[in-house]
Write a structure and sequence with these properties.
By secondary structure, this protein is mainly α. The protein is built from nine helices and no strands. The longest helix is centred in the C-terminal third of the chain and has 33 residues.
Length: 208
């Protein structure tokens, strides 16, 4: 639900706000998410809960990175960005190794501000990582990643219903069972993605 809301906000910003002013909208959006996360002022009001704040923060940060990347600003300061985020990532790993994860506070904020951008930077600027991502297996995973995201929840619900109706007594906390369920979910998601893609493309061809 929060992803759909974020895309609606993103679509509104892209359509209604001038290109040079969009960055300010993204920054305000991100600050709103950060304020909600740290204050959680209206936990029972729709769209203003903690989870919504996390979604706004992460999505807006992605928009900000994309905005600057498209304008070549990230390339201009590539070395500075790589060293800064590389140092921050190594520092975080060292702190966790010495003091434990609790020293970081809200780990989700650390993921949004440091870990996720570090992964993106690595994917953009590392030749070795780009070669790996251009391999067939990663292209296949990338093609089906959205389908896995969209379908995994209803498939898990269906498996739970089957477990309940037929009294299978599956222990989902068991690592072997959990691995099997995840594997089944992955396979079914890919099949549904292929079927839906062919169905949509078939309808497009028919409408032409």
């Amino acid at each position: 639900c929060i992803l759909v809301i974020c895309y609606i906000i993103f679509f509104f910003i892209e359509k209604k706000i001038k290109i040079n002013d969009r960055i300010y909208a993204y920054i305000v959006w991100g600050l709103l998410g950060l304020w909600i996360v740290y204050n959680n002022p209206y936990p029972y009001i729709p769209l203003l809960g903690y989870d919504n704040g996390r979604g706004y923060l992460s999505f807006s940060l992605g928009c900000i990175w994309c905005y600057y990347y498209k304008r070549g600003i990230l390339d201009k300061y590539k070395n500075v960005i790589i060293y800064a985020y590389g140092s921050a990532l190594l520092s975080i790993l060292a702190l966790v190794g010495v003091f434990g994860r609790g020293v970081l506070g809200d780990i989700l904020i650390v993921i949004a501000f440091v870990i996720n951008p570090s992964i993106v930077i690595l994917c953009i600027y590392s030749k070795n990582v780009r070669v790996l991502l251009e391999s067939k297996i990663f292209q296949f995973l990338g093609k089906n990643s959205l389908a896995l995201y969209l379908w995994h929840c209803p498939i898990f619900v269906a498996i739970n219903l089957v477990n309940y109706i037929f009294n299978l007594r599956l222990e989902f906390m068991d690592k072997k069972i959990y691995f099997i369920i995840c594997s089944i979910t992955f396979c079914i998601s890919i099949i549904l993605n292929e079927l839906s893609t062919h169905w949509i493309e078939g309808k497009k061809e028919y409408n032409k």
